[in-house]
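Service request form, structural biology core

Requester: graduate student, group of Dr. S.
Request type: structure prediction, single chain
Budget code: on file
Notes: please return the result as structure tokens.

Sequence provided:
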Amino acid sequence: MFIDLTLDIQSNRVKAALQIQQSAAETELTTAVTRPEHQMEGHVGTHFDVMDKEFPIDSFKTPGKLVDISGIRAREVEVSDLVPSKIEAGDTVIFYTGYMNEFGYENRLYWKRSAELSDAAVSYLIAKQIRLIAVDAAGAQKPTKHQKVDKLCADNGIFIVENLDNVKALIAHRNVPFTVYTAPLRRSGLTGLPCRVIAEIEG
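Core staff response, request fulfilled:
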């Protein structure tokens, strides 16, 4: 069984997202609003920030782990929230925040939220030597730390895939092993790369 976790980018969504990201007065995504206009296309929809690194081809197919953090709203996500998922080296760790379902991609409120991973949680994932962090949110940490955490992870061989969709469909299969396929576009000269993300549920 395959579940497509890629956001369906329609023309109206592209226009809305660009307007939101380019409006510093409306958002705190300083990493987005300071990008040149011609670079914005790489940051629309499901994508990761390149951070001057190359996507390793062996990260195309990885074991997946799902961490449901949709019930965490008043604090950051800590290491203790990750331990039950039994995260291992080489995994793609998908965080279900619920924000894509709750607000929608074109909503300004969506862009002001993130998975709110604590610094300790990020360090834990890096130490585990995972391959990818993926979120159904605009970032892994609060907007003011967006660029810093993307660079830290990329420097350690981990990309953060943002703006997943349909992650809720994985919840019903949370106890079943699954494989994640992540295929970024082969483009050069962009600071972000759109990608297709698909989960294959075993059985």
